[in-house]
Every structure is written in structure tokens, then in C-alpha cells.
Amino acid sequence: VILIALITVLSGALHITSGTLVLTGRMTPAGANTTTAWIVIVVGTITLLIGAGLLFGARVARALTTIGLVSSLITAVLHIFAHPNSDSTTSISAGFIAGIGLILLYTKSANAHFANR
Fold this sequence. Notes:
Elements: H1 2-24, H2 34-54, H3 59-82, H4 89-105, H5 108-115
């Protein structure tokens, strides 16, 4: 579960980083604007916070982590398709990490961990 929490936190941090880079002009993907940058930052922040809450092992944290990772994955995919001519390395990384986190969140050992809470 600690690995899942770290992956979740990392996924959120990558979203926050990419949104911040767009806001500051250090990353300028085609078609990106302030609104999409803020959406990515908000999704990243939510993902980061619920990942931190996952460390406590509460079932609600698992549900919130699932929602956050799915949101993160959707945001990454939408960014890639919305800005096909830009460098999508950050979005691909964030989406990949979110996908791995979702897989790990529902392994047998994770199910057992949350069943005891």
C-alpha cells in the first residue's frame, strides 16, 4: 500500500509540475492555456492529497485514491489528444504512473489490507 501511496503522490506531483510549467511559460504545448493548466494543477493537487491520506489505510482513502488516479489518467490522455503536436512526456509519465497505481490498488494483498480496516 505504501508503494501505491507513493505512486499516487508522484502522479499528482507530475500534474502539478506540468500545469505550473505551462503557467510560467517554461512549457508551451500547442493550444495549452491558463484554464487547462489550472485544471491539471487542481487534479494533481487532489491526487497528491488523497495519496497522502492513503497511507492511513482507510477504505475512504482507497475510494478517493481510485477517483484521483482515474481523474489523473483521464487528464493525461485528454492532454495528449488535445495537444498532439506538443511534447507529451509529462502527460505520458503521469498517465502511466496513474495506471500502475490503479493496478496495484486492487491486488490481493491490497484487498486484504483494506478488508482489515
